[in-house]
Amino acid sequence: MENFIVSARKYRPTTFDTVVGQSSITTTLKNSIATNHLGQAYLFCGPRGVGKTTCARIFAKTINCQNLNSEIEACDECESCKSFNESASFSIHELDAASNNSVEDIRSLIEQVRIPPQIGNYSIYIIDEVHMLSASAFNAFLKTLEEPPKHAIFILATTEKHKILPTILSRCQIFDFQRIKVEDAVKHLVSVAEKEDIEYEKEALNVIALKSDGGMRDALSIFDQIVSFSGKTITYEKTIENLNFLDYEYFFKLTDFFLKEDYASSLLLFDKILDKGFDSHNFLIGLSGHFRDVLVCKDPQTTELLEVGESIRERYLEQSKNCSVDFLYKALDLASKFDINYKISKNKRLHVELALLQFCNILKKKALN
User: Fold this and answer.
1) 75-106 in b/e burial notation, b at 16+ Cβ within 10 A?
2) Is residue 367 pLDDT above 70, yes or no?
3) Domain of 41: which CATH number?
4) Are 191 and 294 within one domain?
5) Which residues pair with 69 in a beta bridge?
6) Measured in whole angstroms, how far is the alpha carbon of residue 140 from the centre of its chain?
């Protein structure tokens, strides 16, 4: 039986061109290599799973490549590239600061920095989770970071830039990685699904991208989970079932009930949602998000802010025609107030039901005024 390799590892980018959603950063790094304007220290920061360590490895590999192509990508054929691909490079070093965060660990690194590279022109040191270094370790690292040997380049990666000493930050070129956009994540998931011969519904991949909250690694992990659950066909129904994702259809129906002032149907539908095991607070947050999405569809200029699939987008555009801006403003205001007071409420179900009753009453109040 062949060993399974998780998609996050199997499809991890190996060139700048395959990095998802960080084009401005990869372009800058490629240009610095092309013009030989390499800094002595770089800091890659941003949320988890957006490509910080991956870009650090690609950058390190490309810097030492002895035969760069016209696109400033590593050749994968020279001695330096081959040793890196085989995890046997003596010129590129990785340190996990989460488990090597003492002064002694940094002193050992400083001693190692003095040794020139065996292959290539640079010794590159990638320090992951650098914010985990102790204050004493940071201080021990300062002098070397500011005045390293000519052959040494440091690439630091962190999810928590605010925990790093300002004196360290001032010695680095700082690159802020952004969350992966839903559309970029979906494109990558489509390519992975096609390579794995997996049939898919676009809406299902869109739900996976939304659930990953901007992390490509998380999106691929969820993708593997759904494949294990549903087999070689990923459907929207199977995806929302496995992820316990509240279907958009509930929110569309509820909004229609609010517009009709149909409080009975609203309460019955909410009861059905609770029976399916959904959390009432998450329901309230989801309803707020739905009102927001309907509101952005009221103006063609803001419609692009809608991060959903094409068929769901059409539903939002259709429903936005039936909702006045005034109704949506009041609905969002009410949803925000009930969200804030949710935690202090003794009867959570009644709290949300009161919210539903007030949503149904918005148009009636407007008529009385």
Assistant:
1) eeebebbebbeeeebebbebbebeebbebebb
2) no
3) 3.40.50.300
4) no
5) none
6) 33
Q: How many domains does the chain have?
A: 3
Q: Which residue has the tokens 């010695």?
A: 171
Phi, psi (5° rounding) for residue 183? -65, -35
With cut-offs at 50, 70 and 90, classify the pLDDT of residue 3: low
Residues 13 and 121 reside in one and the same domain: yes
Same domain, 312 and 260: yes
Strands in 41-45's sheet, in edge-to-edge order, are 92-96, 123-128, 152-158, 41-45, 173-176
- Taking the C-alpha atoms of residue 217 and residue 329, their distance in angstroms, rounded to an integer, is 36
Backbone angles phi, psi at 340, to 5 degrees: -60, -40
Domain endpoint, select from 176, 195, 223:
176
* DSSP assignment string, 29-77: HHHHHHTT---SEEEEE-STTSSHHHHHHHHHHHHH-SS--TTS---S-
Q: Is residue 2 part of a domain?
A: no
Q: How far apart are CA 166 and CA 311, in angstroms?
A: 48
Parent domain of 292: 248-368
pLDDT at 58 over 80: yes
Q: What is the CA radius of gyration of the chain?
A: 26
Name residue 95's beta-bridge partners. Answer: 127
Let me know if 285 is exposed, middle or buried by CB neighbors in 10 A (0-12, 13-18, 19+).
Answer: middle
Cα–Cα dist 353/284, whole Å: 10
- pLDDT band of 1, cuts 50, 70, 90: very low
